[in-house]
Amino acid sequence: MNEPVAAIDLHREPIRSTALLSRYAESTVWLARYMERIENLARIIDVTETFTRTGQAEDGWRSIVQINADSERFYERYERAEHQSMVSFYVLDRDSPTSIATIINLARENARTLRPLISTEMWTHINMFHKWVRELTPNDIRPGQLSRLCARLKQECQTHNGITEGTFFRDQGWYFYVIGKHLERGDQITRLVDIKYHTLLPKVAAVGSPVDMSQWSAVLRSAAAYHAYRRVMPRALTPASVAGFLLLNNAFPRSLVLTLRHVYGALGQLRTDYGLRAGMAAQERIDELRAALADQTIEEIILRGLHEFLDWAQQQIHAVHDDVAAGFWPQPVVAAAAPAAEQPATLPPMTMEQRPGEQIMNGMRQSLPPLRSSTGEE
Question: Do the domain assignments include residue 343?
Answer without folding.
Answer: no
